[in-house]
Amino acid sequence: MPRPPVTRPDDLTDALVRVVVREGLDRVSIRTVAAEAGVSIGTVQYHFATKDDLLLAAYRRVINQVTERALAAAAGARSQAEFVRTLLLQLLPLDGVREAELRVGIAFSARSVHAPPLAELYAEAYGALVDALTRALRDAVTRGETPEDEDPERAARQLAALADGLAWHLACAPGALSAADAVAALDARLAELFPRDGPPAGP
Questions:
Q1: CATH number of the domain that 73 lies in?
Q2: The whole model's pTM is what?
Q3: Residue 120: is its pLDDT beyond 60?
Q4: Vertex 77 angle, CA 74 and 83, to 5°
Q5: Which of 88, 114, 118, 124 could cross-link 163 (Cys pair, CB 3.0–4.6 Å)?
Q6: Count of H-run helices and E-run strands, the chain
Q7: 141 is in which domain, residue-wise?
Q8: Mean pLDDT on 34-53
Q9: 140, 80 Cβ separation under 8 angstroms
């Protein structure tokens, strides 16, 4: 039985993401996305006039999905240390969903160097992450959970960079760094920022 026609923009951006995960960003075109979604090229062009429009929408959708999932996972945290750790672990490719998202993120991040609209989205997402971490760390300093000599914003940027670097190493050099090693490296820095909380619990 043929698949029903797909007309929602989100279905088309999801199809693009599947192509990227499976074959890479270079394989993305209006034609390949249409084939993946099971619709005509005209259907894709009805929602997205150009490939760049489609790429931008897909990147925005992935960023929103990662952000929503990460914040939802961290929402039930019982301390700022747990909030920060849970949030950052959502950025590491520790399961199939996060691995797929990271592949897409790496592909789009590389393209953003020469595509200002994509670069703006990346900067916006990075800024939101740093802001969330900064607020948590600032609150932790106020509560005495984090040493007073820690600069919350600087520490937040360091944590974002650490998580980002670990994620890229896990994706691009999996034989050089295990998931356990990556989590341990993150936990070592968190132990310095939250000395009162003791060893973290679980991956």
A1: 1.10.357.10
A2: 0.86
A3: yes
A4: 60
A5: 88
A6: 9, 0
A7: 62-194
A8: 93
A9: yes
